[in-house]
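hey so i finally got around to running both of the ones u sent me last week. sorry it took forever, my laptop kept dying halfway thru and i had to restart like 3 times lol. anyway pasting them below in the order u listed, first the sequence line then the structure token line for each. didnt double check formatting much so if smth looks off just lmk and ill redo it

first one:
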Amino acid sequence: MKRTLILLLWLLGAAATTVAQQAAVKKIIEMGTTDNQVMRHLDILTNRFGGRPIGSDAYENAAAWLRHEFDKWGIENHLEEAGELSVGFNRGPWFGRMIGGDQPMTLHFVTPSYTSGTQGVQRGHVLIEPTSESELNRMKHVLKGAWVLVDGKSSGWPVGHSDSLRAAIKQENLEIVRYNDSLMRRGGRDRATYEKMKKPKTFPALYYEEMVEAGVLGFIQKAEVPLRALYDRVMLQQQKVDFDHLPQVCDIKLDEHQFDIIYQMAKERRDFWLEFDIRNHFKLGPIKYHNVVGSIRGSKYPDEYVIVSGHLDAYDVATGGIDCGTGIGPMMEAARLLALSGAKPKRTILFVAFAGEEFGLLGAHAYVKTHEKELGKISNLFNRDGGPTPPVGIAVSQAMLKDFEEICRPIKDIRPDYPFEVTVAKPRKRPTQTGGTDASVFAVAGVPTFEFTTRDFKGYNFNYGEIWHTERDVFNKNIPEYQEHTAVVTAIVALGVANLDHLLSREGMYADE
């Protein structure tokens, strides 16, 4: 009789829990469709704080605000130190124009993070960089106060720092000059001799140090539109670099159409000037940076986890509206919906805003290292780091299929016009190296990182390549209805995984295990 009573009480408790969780899902859907605040989160994140490279005031302000929001929703939260930079960086306004020539021109350009700005407004003449020592010697006097057009097309990185590579190319070019001179001595100046001559090798700012020493104002390189700007990773990776050893001249990436016009004018030795005002400011280091971690504690398995994540940092020539606003915004709204819905997950749901993803997945590496003993207790990491397109399905291992079919069943009630399908993913080779997202760090460690399949199925013509690390990564590139739907789906699925009576099975994830 006693055992029967205990079983009955257990069944009643389980039934009550099920009803409570169903009510929470219903509340999540109701709030998510009538009072969805994902675009508010994105507006504040991108338009009040803007671009957010680690080491900047904007990043620190965004992290503090995220904790403020978690506090408002009753979500426990804390900072976890993820690393330290030797210096910090804040970007101010920038402006450039051409004076002289056929007509004035406002210049369209960017500079990578952690590179030098101007010393106020600086005006200078324009030269094409020397490609040989003889050219350098001929130009030495006029390099002072000049803006120098350098070889190559920018990929967003600053002009290379490699002295050894430059030295090797200079030596090769010296040999080429000697070879060509010998041809001229033997064959004269006929056409056959010229056809045998070799061209010197080029390299952006081949005589970098010599030009800096001569007093150039900065270097200008051609760049595709939309303009892409990354950061000076070499400087930050060198432990000896500190506030007393910072870049001294500007590194400008100029609209390729304007560059071609200016290059031709410089080639014709016409009189004109470029004027720049670039306010790139450094901060005295060391500067610590942190992951932001919020949590809704599990009622039954508090030491087991479901993680919802994105990265808080973003490049700063734009505002990080997509990369990674589309991860942070839905993560925040999913957290709000779960916290205010009355959901009581069985295992702990973590909301992690990683630091330094753009600087080499730094926050994710730090988290995995700090929480190494907990990795086996992570049911799944739902990381979002892509476009504003909505979830239309999820592909999971065969062992997880039934769980996810049940978990995702309520999604069809959110918006009947939005497709969603649970399918089986074939076992894949376990990764041994990280890739381009924070999730890859966890995948290398064997943590399940199944994520939603997304698609621009309504035809908003979104192009990720257009915004990826470019000046167009801004708030208005988001698609509100897609982002709102993403937040609701994320909340429902995270809660469903957290409420399973077991961790998701890792069987069949990898083909070689």
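and the second one:
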Amino acid sequence: MIGNSPEVSIVIVSYRVRERLRACLESLRQLDPQGPSFEVIVVDNASGDGTCEQLPAAFPEVQFLPMDRNLGFSIGCNRGASRSKGRFLLFLNPDTVVFPDTLRKVVEFADTHPEAGIVGCRILDGDGRLQLACRRSIPTLAVALPRLTGLSFLFPKSRVFGRYNLTYLDPEVSTPVEAVSGSFLMIRKNVFDSIKGFDEDYFLYAEDLDLCLRVARAGHQIWYCGEASIIHHKGQSAATRPWGARMDFYRAMVVFARKNLGVGPVLELFLNLVAAGLATGNVLASQVRDLRSLALDLATSNLVFAFIAMMWLGGKGIGNYLSTPLGWAWHLVFSVAILAGQIGVGAYRLGPSDLKKRALGVGISLGVFLGVGLVLKHLVFSRAVFVLGGALAGLALLMVSSLAQRNRPAPMRVVVAGTGAASLRVSRLLKSVHRVRVVGMLAMSDFQAVEGDLMVVARMPYLGPAAKALELAAIVVPGDDPEVARMLVELAGTRRTGLKLLLALLPAGTDLPALVDITLDRSFIPERQA
């Protein structure tokens, strides 16, 4: 509830994410009216995408503070905080969606934990998975080393190796931590003022770690509230400059180490060199995640090119082509050109790739390959093979990509209703079904928790914002759950969200549930039990 004397001042620093910001502000309009009063202050870092021209008219209740240039996250937060009136400050990323009960739960938690100077919450990504940065430890050498060596990924449940992101803790259990994420960080206004806000030496990243550390040193606790959740579409602003964003992150960590962990100038120089290497490696790794698609492209293009070469040369040098390194060396050049073009258009990230972008990548690849052939024309065994073979290989690559996309439709994104044994069993069985993507569990009340590796991503009756943020298509109800009738009664109102209601039945002799659509008759409303 927005009011003139707000309890909470929500500060959002935005940069080139206008539509994500719009979705975030819409979710704030749906906050529980019985929750705390709040105000919203948006600091726009000269986005240039129409944020301050288009959104103020749509959200007159929001204060917009346009900056004349990109001042960074820390300065933006401090500027927004200077306009605040609430007893709590909530720093919120613009690419988040807040569930209706989240603010109420976090404020109630803070009021019952007066020792907490900062409170964070459970943060889920767009697939319903926990974003590990929502609760973490200060990255001292002992904490960061298992992360850098990969031991934290091999042994996530270890209290020694999993300290960086506290992966050994239950994500639904509230606990004191050393730091929470700046994408949702609520701090008492008097505490924020006493430590003089964010350190403005940080442009982007690590400012939340620094703030948490200074609050802890001032005698307050940092708490992670596992009862409340948001969705965070991480990296929307950074996507426009992937390498620069990664360098910003690692440089910020070096600044943090210099200011708080006693790192000297020589070690700082070394860490900056390591940062450049890590940023480059991260960007390359983020571009090449679909290894099967990459391998298929290399195999297809090289086989077609070799076939054209053999057919064209026939008896006029085919022996040379097969027996000398020169012919195969051009395959290496061709492979590098194919990879450069396809990686450049993002073809090997997870998820389906746009065929038009694929075609652009093929064009880039052929241009690079023919350009190298032109420069080294004295080493080219046949110009005709280069032009024809390269063109047909590129065409074959596009045809295979088109067939692969046609045969691999995007799975239907669902949540499974309930958190009991039947719901957990259905969820795990559906994970082996390629046409269904189980995003998480839909709790039917505030008092249900999940045991195991599955996450509660939404709770009734606050399903709407989560359904939109997670791009859900259906709710699956376990047909053999003892509470199935009560579930269907409670879920009757979800028809207005446009979600399908699927009943999961387990036929005898099979381990795969049959999903029966029970939303065909939209006029049907179950009778409530007396």
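quick thing i noticed on the 2nd:
The longest strand covers residues 221-232.
anyway thats it, ttyl
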